[in-house]
Amino acid sequence: MRIYVLDASALLRFTDGEPGFERVRDLYAEAVGGDIRLLMSAVNWGEVVLAVLRRGGLNMQSILDNLTALPMTIVPVDAAVASRAAHFKFLYRVPYADAFAGALALAPFGRDDSTIGATLVTADNDFRTIPEAAMAIEFLPGK
Fold first, then answer.
1. Which tens digit of pLDDT belongs to each residue from 100-140?
2. What is the count of structural domains for the chain?
3. What is the pLDDT of residue 107?
4. Is 16 exposed, middle or buried (0-12, 13-18, 19+ CB in 10 A)?
5. The CATH number of the domain where 96 resides is what?
6. Do residues 8 and 47 lie in contact, with contact meaning Cβ atoms separated by under 8 Å?
7. Which residue in 14, 57, 119, 139 has a CA-CA distance of 20 to 30 Å to 101?
8. Predicted local distance difference test score (pLDDT) of residue 30
């Protein structure tokens, strides 16, 4: 099964209807059909919640409720995950919160090579410095 990791920028493109929202919408449709699995780090989920709250305060709870109903697993963060994110940040010089998305995309998801790693979906140009051979990244179009 193909696995995709959404970073905060991808989900915010979806909520705002900005360039690339169609791709994220299509990924959700594939996830509903069971064709793919969507993940997001709890740290990146926190970025989304903060952005939504900044836009409309506590009145935005219905948007957050709708987002949590989407077929996406929010992956919790523990010491091991934080360490992997720190290593990712050190290696690739991305902002710390972004490193959680990158580290999650590189995490092993199973016992065989077909389930190791995922494709990171992002609109964040900070990931453009990562060599193509290091990981699979799908960039959403610019604004």
1. 999 999 987 654 544 457 999 999 999 999 999 999 999 99
2. 1
3. 85
4. middle
5. 3.40.50.1010
6. yes
7. 57
8. 96
Distant-in-sequence, close-in-space partners of 127: CB < 8 Å, separation ≥ 6: 7, 92, 94, 98, 102, 120, 137, 139
Residue 51 identity (one-letter amino acid): A
Print the domain residue range for 131: 2-139
Q: Residue 75 and residue 103: Cα distance in Å, rounded?
A: 12
Which residues in the chain land under pLDDT 70?
A: 58-59, 109-116
The rounded distance, in Å, linking the Cα atoms of 49 and 97 is 14
Three-state helix/strand/coil letters over the chain: CEEEEECHHHHHHHHHCCCCHHHHHHHHHHHHCCCEEEEEEHHHHHHHHHHHHHHHHHHHHHHHHHHHCCCCEEECCCHHHHHHHHHHHHHHCCCHHHHHHHHHHHCECCCCHHHECCEEEECCHHHHHCCCCCCEEEECCCC
Q: How far apart are alpha carbons 132 and 91 in whole angstroms?
A: 14
